Amino acid sequence: MKLDVIKLDGKKAGSVDLGDEIFGLEPRADILHRVVRWQRARAQAGTHKVKTRSETSYSTKKIYRQKGTGGARHGDKNAPIFRHGGIYKGPTPRSHAHDLTKKFRKLGLCHALSSKAASGNLVVLDTAELADGKTSTLAKAMKELGWKRALVIDGAEVNANFARAAANIQDLDVLPSMGANVYDILKRDTLVITKAGVEALEARLK
Hints:
By secondary structure, this protein is of the alpha/beta class. It folds into 2 domains: 2-45 and 97-205, Ribosomal Protein L4, Chain: A (3-Layer(aba) Sandwich); 50-90, no CATH class. It has helices spanning 20-23, 29-43, 102-118, 135-145, 160-166, 182-187, 195-205; strands spanning 2-6, 12-17, 122-125, 150-153, 172-175, 190-194. Strands 2-1-3-6-4-5 form a 6-stranded mixed sheet.
């Protein structure tokens, strides 16, 4: 697959060949779903917690006598049956993460890249660099290029001025090539990869 390479000012800067084994697959929703689910499960804090009957702060004194009341026998106000008592089998802190093989995760990333290429929302940028770190400069370039909700994937490192300018733009994310992931790619409408990013991704996924 061959795509034109552009600069931030919109001018052409040659073309690049993209490997079909990474950018030319037929996107499969089931693979993308499994990888996104794995990512979001790992991101869950898992800090939900309720108090059991041993942790609620009521007196442990027997609340009324054993016999003669006509009601059920009770000894502790902390029992789950009472209001403000402990919760029975409630959530406790735990990890929501589950396993997914490296091979499948790599396949999911290839399908995410292929989905953007197939829908025409993949842009190859010559370099993601700015002479200054001004947000207004980058915002103007984005508007002229028609990028509304974009993810920029650079090479091994992101240019400091470009990252500083992008930090104040709500609908723009910038990641190094090692940070490329399925969820962030699918979340944004436009995927922008620099030439260095393409080389790094192909080296990582081949």
